[in-house]
Each structure stands twice: as C-alpha cells, then as structure tokens.
Amino acid sequence: MRLPQARLDQVLDRFREIEARMGAASDGAEIVRLSKEHAELKPVAEAVQTLERARAEQPELEEMAASGDAEMVELARGELETLKERLPELERQVALLLAPKDKDENASAILEVRAGTGGDEAALFAGDLFRMYQRYAQSRGWRVEIDSVSEGEMGGYKEIVASVTGDGVFGRLKFESGVHRVQRVPATEAQGRIHTSAATVAVLPEPEDVEIEIRDQDLRIDTYRSSGAGGQHVNKTDSAVRITHLPTGIVVTSSEKSQHQNRARAMKALKVKLYDMQREAIDSARSEARKSQVGSGDRSERIRTYNFPQGRVTDHRINLTLYNLPKIMEGEALDDVIGPLIAEDQAARLAALEDELG
C-alpha cells in the first residue's frame, strides 16, 4: 500500500502541534488530555519518520548506483535492494497504525465463562476453558482476579467471572467472545460415547476511565451467603453482593469475603457491562459488513470446536484447523489460534483504510 505523503504529513504536523502545546499548557486537565494523545500518536509518528527516512534514501542510492565508481555502484545496489525489500513492510506497519482500530485495544478486560448446553460436562468444559485463559494470561504477565464463581456439581463452573489486568488484554482476548463447542467422552460416560457440549465466553473491555452515570434509585442491592468453596466464613455471613440495574435488568455479583470489597467489585463490573452495551449499540449502527468481520464479538455465534478424540481445534470464523489441542488447552499454544484471528482483523482494517484513501 502506497500511503499518500499528505496523510503522513498530517500525522507529523499533529504530533508536533501537541508537543508544542504540552510545553505551553498550564491547565491540569488539558495537560492530561494532551499527554494521552501524545502517547497514542508517538508510535505512529516514529513509524512515519522511519518510513520517510527510508523513502528519502531511495533516490540517493539510485543516484549512487548509476555513478561511474564500480565499488560504489556495487555497494549502492546492494543497499538499494535491501531498502526495496524493507519499504513494503515499513508501509504496512504505518498503515496498520493509521487504520481504524478498536479504541479499547489496550484495555484490561472482564472475562466471563458460562456452562451452556450439556449439563455437568458443560460445566467441566467451562472450567477447562477458564484454566486455559488463566495459563495464557500468566504466560503474558497479566493478572487474573476472580470476581464471582458458581461451581458445577461435578466440578468445573456453571459460571465464573474474572478481571484480567494488563496491557493489551482486550485486544487479544476479544476474539474469544462466543460459543465454544466441545466433542469428547465425558468422565461420567460409561459406554465411551462422544458427547457434544458447549460453553459461552464473553470478554468485555475495562477501560481506565469508564464514565457511566449510575443513579442510586436505579439499583437494587442484595446481600446473601456465598456458596461453593471458601471455608466456614462464606457459609455463615451474608458477605456476597448482588446488584441489579433496574433500567436494563443487568445483574452483577461478587462473592469474596469482604462485603465492602464485593460492593466495589460489583459496581465496577456493572459499569463495564453498561459500557459494553454502549459499544454494542454503536457497533450495531455501523455498516452491516462489520457482522462478517472477525472482531464483531457476537456472543451467540459458535466460533470454535474442540474435538478431543482427534486432538483437533477448529475456528469456524476463518476456517482454521489445528491438531495441537492439548497445548492449546494448556494455554501455551492459544496464540496459534489468536494470531491468525488478529491477522484477519488487521487485513480487514487495512482494507477499510484503502477504501478511505480511495
């Protein structure tokens, strides 16, 4: 993709303008706003500057390659060939930075995993999925904190909600939203028959500044006794908190030991869910073409099948089939699935930029 010089100049002009305004600003709120925009634009400006330097080298090398000095000609031609191989990748990097992107790409996230069809086996599979994400998060240096949990009778989880904190969490995990289907012989199956079960995953962005207005009169707050593992404390005190947002019907819970902590966590989760509703409303108003994109986040769609007898994982959105299911379930090879999904999303973003540039 050949990016127009006018677009590159626009980026650099804006970056320089922000730097100049930061040096002169005295208002605290303006400094914060400018600093945020500066941090967002800096990698773009640096990539543009690298591209411009490379572009400027080309005519100089071409002139040297056409000179009469044999030794200089050979050297210049070698450097010119290397530069021509490097330029498309530099252009692609800049194009990706300029392409439309999810503003919550770098946000932390709320991860929700729920058992779907399949009874006890679905709960066991939900547990397997959550452990997969836990291990994956650990490998990337992210922190996972469980906000609420409802355990299955035979193990696993009927539902588990956790906060995943770190840089770029939502940008990678957002592709996990949807219905995950499993085909395997359950531990409870005496005849050795393969069963099909499902679990749903929802990944909601948790931006740093969620400006959502919540009125006290719109809330119903209940306390109750926690269930499941946790010792005697959870069985004897009404420490768990359930908050219902009456206008939307959204219900959030938190079931740690401290009621005060549970209330704070539940309010945070409610803000995230209301923010996600706003995102979905905006997304649904966009082009119908977006529904076919990888990052559409439709949580009712079956996105992936895990076939244990064949050791196979298939992502139905991009027709990707892999035969390393054990490593994927351990979290160590989950990037083998997420990587191609990100690449597909990037291709869609680049196509959108090309349409914009005409």
From TrEMBL:
Coiled coil ranges: 44-93
Function in brief: Peptide chain release factor 1 directs the termination of translation in response to the peptide chain termination codons UAG and UAA.
Provide the gene name from the record. Answer: prfA
Gene3D superfamilies linked to this entry: 3.30.160.20, 3.30.70.1660, 6.10.140.1950
Query: Keyword Cytoplasm on this protein?
Result: yes
Q: Which GO terms describe its molecular function?
A: translation release factor activity, codon specific
Q: Which family does it belong to?
A: Belongs to the prokaryotic/mitochondrial release factor family.
Q: Which residues carry this modification: N5-methylglutamine?
A: Q232
Q: Which UniProt keywords apply?
A: Coiled coil, Cytoplasm, Methylation, Protein biosynthesis
Free-text description of this protein's post-translational modifications in UniProt: Methylated by PrmC. Methylation increases the termination efficiency of RF1.
The GO cellular component terms are: cytosol
Q: What is this protein called?
A: Peptide chain release factor 1
Signal sequence, start to end:
none
What SUPFAM superfamilies does the annotation carry? Release factor (SSF75620)
State the compartments where it is located: Cytoplasm
Prokaryotic-type class I peptide chain release factors domain span: 225-241
Q: Which Pfam families did the record assign?
A: PCRF, RF-1
